[in-house]
């Protein structure tokens, strides 16, 4: 007995979702709708679009900040960005305390920082410093949190490169009270994906991420045999998989902490090589 037309259309829509062939906004709507257990009550999912708002500045929070010398060759760190200056982050970078770093998930997040409540050391007018998280300030449990163990949990603390620390305070202060908030990251160009490793261990560095700036998940898909495959964070913003990626045109899907995602369709051609960097669309 032939299936009713409505049942056939429903089956076709399900196959498109599973195969990843629907546009991103439709897949996002469908996934979110099913997660909340709603059927749509007759609304057409192809018409109803689900859009998350752009990342907005967060609330102001009190913390403290110190600085490190930041000499030549020291601007790498625990996020895996290597040479952050040449990757577009400049000197406006910061190492986060244990409580903020969140095992590397905060890598790429952007902050506005002001020196506060210390007229002796704060620069007049309370200028703002805008920085990107590119490193980890590890705890020092041999020192008190109030005297040397500045990055011990649960403290919120920023260790800033000396050249930019001096924009908000006199560096002779050593440590200063600050207020900070998360802000949208403003980046030039698109999200970059640098592929390294070998055919049996693929590593992808995700960088130059706008909007929320951080990445909570990464998926990769080929044009042939490689279906949508979650990649695993190994450290910072370096993600790995042992799935076979070689020989396929690659698509990457990035999801940020605000729930928004960006899909870079077929940005790596079939003949891509390890060590190459590819660019996809960015968050606004």
UniProtKB/TrEMBL annotation:
Residues 1-28 form the signal peptide. Pfam families: DPBB_1, Expansin_C. Gene3D superfamilies: Expansin, cellulose-binding-like domain, RlpA-like domain. One of its GO terms (biological process) is anatomical structure morphogenesis. It is a peripheral membrane protein. InterPro entries: Expan_Lol_pI, Expansin, Expansin/allergen_DPBB_dom, Expansin_CBD, Expansin_CBD_sf, RlpA-like_DPBB, RlpA-like_sf. It comes from the Eukaryota. Residues 76-190 form the Expansin-like EG45 domain. It is found in: Secreted, Cell wall; Membrane. Residues 200-280 form the Expansin-like CBD domain. Keywords: Cell wall, Cell wall biogenesis/degradation, Membrane, Secreted, Signal. GO terms for cellular component: extracellular region; membrane. Belongs to the expansin family. Expansin A subfamily. Causes loosening and extension of plant cell walls by disrupting non-covalent bonding between cellulose microfibrils and matrix glucans. No enzymatic activity has been found. This is Expansin. It comes from Trema orientale (Charcoal tree). The lineage of its organism: Eukaryota, Viridiplantae, Streptophyta, Embryophyta, Tracheophyta.
